[in-house]
Amino acid sequence: MAKSSSAAIAGLAYLQRPEKYPPKPICALFGDEPFLKSAIIAQLKAAVLTDDDGDLSFRAFVGDDADPRDVFDELSTVALFGAGRRLALVTEADDFVSEHRHSLEDYADRPSQTGVLVLEVKTWPSNTKLYKKVAESGLNIDCSAPKESTLLDWISDRAQQQYNVTFAPGAADRLMQIVGPQMGRLDQETAKLANLVASESLVAPESAGDQSRVATGPTSVTAPAPATRRGLKASAPTGITIQLVEDVVGGWRAKKAWDMIDAAVEGNAAEALVQLDRLLLSGENPIALMGQMASSLRKFAAAARIVNQSQSAGRRINIRQALEQAGFKNWSGMMDKAESQIRQLGARRAGQLYRWLLEADLALKGSSSSGDRARLVLEQLIVRMSKQLA
């Protein structure tokens, strides 16, 4: 029998085409993205336990308390319900795998054909014998957090397919900036935004005459008929805007944080320092603010490096091209604003952004993690970008 490729399957690739990867006797889910693991486990259960009574053929074990004999017995027992197979899930199974590696290797050589074993672990080194055996007779599925560019495609597709809503240009990026690359949070916030859009997406009455007279004392006014009356119907909700993301997901603090960053990169240190003061007084964590600043400033640093490398290689590249390669999108005037901001910084200062960010990050994680010292670290970074020091 030909051996399977040792390369692991990316978690998102599995979810997009589960029929391409039918359940095998052993499935190892490894990585640090809990949303991916949960979604893949649900998909495996649906594929293995196909009948209404299939849940009776499912059993979950916790790694620390699991006895391999109980797990293997569960897998070797013919299911009374479902499609004749059982599914045993061992969660938090890193220690379970370490302690019973030889037993699992033996099982992988002669796995039960009546059950599917799912191991949920954080680490799963590809140079181990067990990994290679699972690659031959099972599925190794990498549930590490995807890259941000991949997540943007995923959340845009999920919004349309799962929630019947679309993101306006730039809105998914802003959601990513506020929430971070956390699939569960991204999905929850998208669902919340979709519900808000759907609640406001009733089309106008079919005829202008479908109206109600509402008495208000001696006079009356004409009002639209309630949504439940005939003539109104729900339209497909579309258009999660940047403003909606900022208002609903980010709230006041997130909006002010982006105002602070814009002011800083534009060289308006006075305005940026005022916004910083307001955010810190409201209880914002300096390390969290640093994370938001870094996510934007790294793109400017990358653009400066692209220009530098092109010039060193004797190639000509304009600033707009470098900004595009660094990840800036031409939405709602964002590219024009980014070009103006990087010109304000200048080549020398933009080229030092990586070093400045590293220094600030180390300081916040060291002796300047809180209080006035943390404030000073952020203030220094803002002042370095000011017009006065250009």
Task: Summarize the structure in words.
The protein has 390 residues and is α/β, with parallel strands linked by helices. Helices cover 54% and strands 11% of the residues. The chain contains 16 helices and eight strands. It is elongated. Mean pLDDT is 83; it is low at 202-237.
Distance between the termini: 67 Å
Mean pLDDT equals 83
Helix segment tally: 16
Q: What is the string of helix and strand elements?
A: EHEHEHEHHEHEHHHEEHHHHHHH
Which tags fit this structure?
six-stranded parallel sheet; two-stranded antiparallel sheet; 16 helices; 11% strand
Quick rundown:
This protein has 16 helices and 8 strands. With 390 residues, it is an alpha/beta fold. Helix 12 (286-312) crosses helix 14 (334-351).
Ordered list of secondary-structure elements with their pairings:
Blueprint: E1 9-10, H1 11-16, E2 26-30, H2 34-48, E3 58-62, H3 68-76, E4 86-91, H4 94-99, H5 101-109, E5 115-121, H6 129-137, E6 139-142, H7 148-163, H8 171-179, H9 183-199, E7 211-216, E8 219-224, H10 242-265, H11 269-281, H12 286-312, H13 319-325, H14 334-351, H15 353-364, H16 371-384
Parallel strand pairs: 1-6, 2-5, 2-6, 3-4, 4-5
Antiparallel strand pairs: 7-8
Helix pairs in contact: 5-6, 7-9, 8-10, 10-11, 10-12, 11-16, 12-13, 12-14, 12-15, 13-14, 15-16
